[in-house]
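Journal club prep, shared notes

We agreed each person brings one worked example of a sequence with its structure written out as tokens. Mine is Thermophilic serine proteinase. I'm keeping it raw so we can talk through how to read the token line rather than staring at a rendered picture. Sequence first:
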Amino acid sequence: MKFNRETGDNIRLVTGEDGVVQTGVAEIDEMMTRLGVSKIENVFAEGGTFRERRREAGLHLWYDVYAGDTQDHAETRAMGVFGDLPFINAVELIPVYRQEQSPVEKYINQSYSLAPEAQETWQAPKEEAETPYYPFNDPGLSLQWHYQNFGNKSGSIAGADINLFPAWEITAGRPEVIVAVIDGGVDYSHPDLAANMWVNTAERNGTAGVDDDGNGYKDDVYGYRWGGSLFPDSGEILPLDHGTHCAGTIAAVNNNGIGCCGVAGGTGKGDGVRIMSCQTFVPDNSKTDAYGNTIATGNTADAFAYAADNGAVIVSCSFSSTSNSYKEAIDYFIKNAGTDKNGKQTGPMKGGVVVCAAGNESSDTKRYPAAYEPCISVGGIRWDYTKASGSNYGDWITLSAPYGGGGTDNAIYSTYPTKSPNGTPKSSGYGYKSGTSQACPHVAGIAALMVSKFGVSQPDYVPNKLVTRLANSTRNIDSYLGSYAGRLGVGLVDAGRAVNYPPEMVPEKGREIYLEAFENVRINLNEYFSDPDGDALNYEVTGGNGGKLKVELEGTILVLTTISAGHSDVKIKATDLTGESVTATFAILAMDPKSEADVYPNPVTDILQVRMGKEVNGEVGVQLFNSAGVKVLDTKITVRPSKPGTIAVEKLSGGIYTLVIKYNGKEIKKNILKY
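Then the structure, token by token:
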């Protein structure tokens, strides 16, 4: 529950000789005694050097209160009583979150029974497979269809992926970018993760049991563990399947000749993004379930604050609940990530981005934190673009990413712990999972690539720029979604488009090219188009090659040969290395050098066009006289450098006419034959 600031500022938790915790506020202590409160504790740690920032945000006003026995619904009565107190602003049950993965999972080299996934009734059209290619030497990359799907496996469709390989041509990550995985513990010693783990060097080189860096947490070398009632809070990370699998999708080390790849795992030169393990799910040996024998600790809120205060700018959250209890924790992260205690930017992005799994209930019921508006909510697709059977859906989904499927071939391949929490050997270190839990880290990894590309060394990069670009770079897959069209977000996330600036027109260059009739010119298209990423551009040209203009393309050189005076439109498409393109239409204006005005077609049947020099831009007076000298038309037309003026003559009788053009005190006469 949350106290108002006046009361909360005065609370001082003290444990008496009888073991009862007192707040120092008599009315609260009396009420807690009456309700049988067994424990009260801060939701958020003080935060060490970030204490004042946390207090300013009001995080110190939140407390977890444990009342009576759940069997007699004491907690419900306590909510009602506390909620009526004038100095309490909010009361809600401590949420129990679950990890959002499908029960389908498999260790490599181990026998495991797979539960079949529900069959989709909608059948995707068959599309031609592509020839596979792999830019890095990790042997498991060929199993990660979710990065680049070549359509070479039965039931898959080429392109139903995150289009990662083109992105890797631009960036594969930067170590300045830290992604916090709020989840089960990450196997920080895993041979495919260790080099990309965030390391708190002050704690690693410090004294055990001492908060060496003053951040309020002891021994947090690779992150921190919130243990709830099962384990003490500690810097000791207990590696678990779910968190390790998500971490591998984000940043397994690339190009190291072993295992699999991570979306932002670098190029094998120590240049991947860094993973911070914020463990809020811990082992629960008393409970057997399909989610790795883990349980949520209820201390997730403080993990967001920890991530913000210790350098993370992206959070990956593969868990959900129907309770929206962590708004203020998420708001704190989004506002303060990437800054020091005074709000000065120290990270690659000023502010943070929170990426969340939408959940696997195949429901449109909102799940949190995904449905909290500032978060990026990730739905799931299969390897044929269709909705994954378990994925949630609705207007609260932001976008989609690969979810996996019911077997191993179409599930998501990533890292597993090589040892159990007690240190005993566990598996080969790799395996399969499916769920929006797996879709989520794909998007978190792409967000990390975006910060690597656009944020590092660019202090004006903020979360809104990332989220807007991420959404705008998605691919619309509604044609594959049947009744779920429009209910899995704006589209399928696309890494290649997200990190690539498309080509653009050089702004100071116009789109009109003035020539003389029968002239031959060579134009360098690189003077009209540019690519912010420095890519070499490939050009395609359509139009022209009629009776007025001959068009040829020699690499980047556009060759124009005017055959007669007049106007022709030529469309030019510039494409960069990732397939992004821009198209522009150029007006090619060919004038008779001996004439102040060109009039065409002549003879004419319906519309007569009048083109003048490039200095003419506005209204022009025109008159038509028949062969007897009688004026049959007196009007004004608009003539632009890029657009001729037009005169409707279809109602005139056939014969010879004289056109008089009046402009700037001049008269220009032309003879016209009307059919």
